[in-house]
Amino acid sequence: MNVQTVSVLLSFILILALAAVFLRVRGLAHEGRDYAPVQGNAYRIRAFGFWFLILVGLPISIWLFRENPYTAEAAAPQVINVTGYQWYWELDQSEVAAGVPVEFRVTSADVNHGFGIYDAAGTLVAQTQAMPGYVNRLTHVFETPGTYQVLCLEYCGLVHHNMIAEIVVTEGGSDG
Ligand SMILES: [Cu+2]
């Protein structure tokens, strides 16, 4: 099962769960309840949510920003021009060397797409938006040689799931 199939199944399960919550709320809507005890519970949940975000969410957010691709140096020796189309990717080059920065110049010919690069294990390694009328620059250093997949990260229509391209990363140093 690949990443896309898992995300489709997960989305479907979450949609069903959400629908179940709405049906339950609708079912309970006829019951009269005293306001005060409900309010007390809601305040407790709100206080928990507030401190959870401050104590857990904030450190995680700061930690995730430790590698910010948008501040990486612009002098990248390897450049790949990327254009997103409904529904495929066009890369003017699909082979780069490991260990050397790659600058992706990403745009779109029609609607917004999400340019996401995944390693062989299915882990997202870098991503940016592909937007019509703009060129977004994303710099990434591939440390591990191998075949990487490009998937679309923004729903862009009927065949969105099939927007798959490949980038081959070779051992760095020799031909660059
Ligand atoms: Cu898409």
TrEMBL record:
Lineage of producing organism: Bacteria, Pseudomonadati, Pseudomonadota, Alphaproteobacteria, Rhodobacterales
Main location: other
Keyword line: Copper, Membrane, Metal-binding, Transmembrane, Transmembrane helix
Compartments reported by the entry: Cell envelope
Record-annotated Cytochrome oxidase subunit II copper A binding domain positions: 75-176
PROSITE patterns in the record: COX2 (PS00078), COX2_CUA (PS50857)
InterPro entries per the UniProt record, alphabetical: CcO_II-like_C (IPR002429), Copper_CuA (IPR001505), Cupredoxin (IPR008972), NosZ/Cyto_c_oxidase_sub2 (IPR051403)
Matching CDD domains: CuRO_HCO_II_like_1 (cd13916)
Transmembrane parts of this sequence: 6-25, 45-65
Entry superkingdom: Bacteria
Source organism: Sinisalibacter aestuarii
Protein name per Swiss-Prot or TrEMBL: Cytochrome oxidase subunit II copper A binding domain-containing protein
